[in-house]
TrEMBL record:
Record protein name field: Origin recognition complex subunit 5
Main location: nucleus
Domain Orc1-like AAA ATPase positions: 21-167
Keyword vocabulary terms for this entry: ATP-binding, DNA replication, Nucleotide-binding, Nucleus
Function as written in the Swiss-Prot or TrEMBL entry: Component of the origin recognition complex (ORC) that binds origins of replication. DNA-binding is ATP-dependent. The specific DNA sequences that define origins of replication have not been identified yet. ORC is required to assemble the pre-replication complex necessary to initiate DNA replication.
Residue intervals of the Origin recognition complex subunit 5 C-terminal domain: 314-433
Taxonomic lineage: Eukaryota, Metazoa, Chordata, Craniata, Vertebrata
Record's subunit section: Component of ORC, a complex composed of at least 6 subunits: ORC1, ORC2, ORC3, ORC4, ORC5 and ORC6. ORC is regulated in a cell-cycle dependent manner. It is sequentially assembled at the exit from anaphase of mitosis and disassembled as cells enter S phase.
Database matches in InterPro entries: AAA_16, ORC5, ORC5_C, ORC5_lid, P-loop_NTPase
GO CC term, one of those recorded: nuclear origin of replication recognition complex
Domain of life, per lineage: Eukaryota
SUPFAM superfamilies: P-loop containing nucleoside triphosphate hydrolases
Originating organism: Chaetorhynchus papuensis (pygmy drongo)
UniProt-listed Gene3D superfamilies: P-loop containing nucleotide triphosphate hydrolases (3.40.50.300)
Amino acid sequence: MPNLEHPAYPAADLLHLESLVPCRESQVSMLLSIFGERQQFSLPSIFIYGHTSSGKTYVMQTLLTTLQLPHVFVNCVEYFTSRLLLEEILTQLQSSSSGTEQTCPVHCDTLNDFVRLFKQAVASRELQDQTLYIVLDRAEQLREMEANILPAFLRLQELTDRNVTVVLLSEIVWELFRPNVGCFEPFTMYFPDYSIGHLQKILSQNHPPEYSADFYSAYINILLGVFYMVCRDLKELQHLAALNFAKYCEPVVRGEANERDTRKLWKNIEPHLKKAMQTVYLREISSSQWERLQHDGGEPGQLKGLSAHTHVELPYYSKFLLIAAYLASYNPVRTDKRFFLKHHGKIRKTNFMKKHEKTSNHLLGPKPFPLDRLLAILYSIVDNRVAPTANIFSQITSLVTLQLLSMVGQNDQLDGPRYKCTVSLDFIRAIAR
């Protein structure tokens, strides 16, 4: 029995729509109830929010396209100013009404111009008898535009006196949108994250035709068992599934195992999935490079991760600042004179070193240090003379922004700022080379 039912749309279209949006049937059913029939007025504005890769954009595009509802779809990241956004909406309306993509450019400087041109575009498209949907993806960018843009979109149905519904898609909650002066409250709708069962069902639909569905489903089960705790992004999991499936099939292709030998297949794919965990989200290498590395039997050491690549982008003195910060975090203050002065005098061996050599400072974690100590170590490890200019202090701020350093005790105005080094020893070794 189909989950989607609506008297205004053909049953065949609803059945096809249900097959395209697995595990989102309840959300689509709710949207269909809100939309109503084509000629009926819908809600003025709908706010849909949820984490990344929860299906918000895909569901809206699929729903509007499959049921052939008149709509405009705009990404607010691409059209990042109010003028670009308003002109793009009018351009899409004009191109759909003329049936061609090449249309004369639309100039729209103010909201008054937009309302006037919008009425003309709706009239030329003959949409007075059905709802027009304006979907604004990544709607959190509207907060960076003029203060009247968001309230105007929420009341666009009232301003234009037309049957139009504005749908806002965002990854943040409505409370972070609401202006201080108050505005029309949209209907809010939440898209929850996909559960592991949902991910299993969605990913299993992409099985290659030359292998059985059960075989590919077993592979997806193994993949989720490894990656689900560290990655729940559907797009990333789809990429990982496509990238590692050839390695999973190798024993079957060579004739060493059949599709039911799950243990042998797991033993073959396990080390490669562990190597793949080092590049989740990072995209340090392309898919072709990863496949070549698998084919050549590369070791995990060949994928150095973030520590081997990021230091190339750091400025010259930022590298020395980071090394000085690491030395200041993991060496006691009393050893600075011994390590960084050429003529430090004679140091007597006492029981102090024996007492403290039991516990490594790397196990205790980084210690905070003041700014003047960081600069003093910097001057001692750089060969040429470094002047304490604004350039040096701005690079320290950049390292904090990049989260390579962290500021602690910033509310203490008497002692000044104190910092901690947050990178690993491998990262510092890569920079020191």
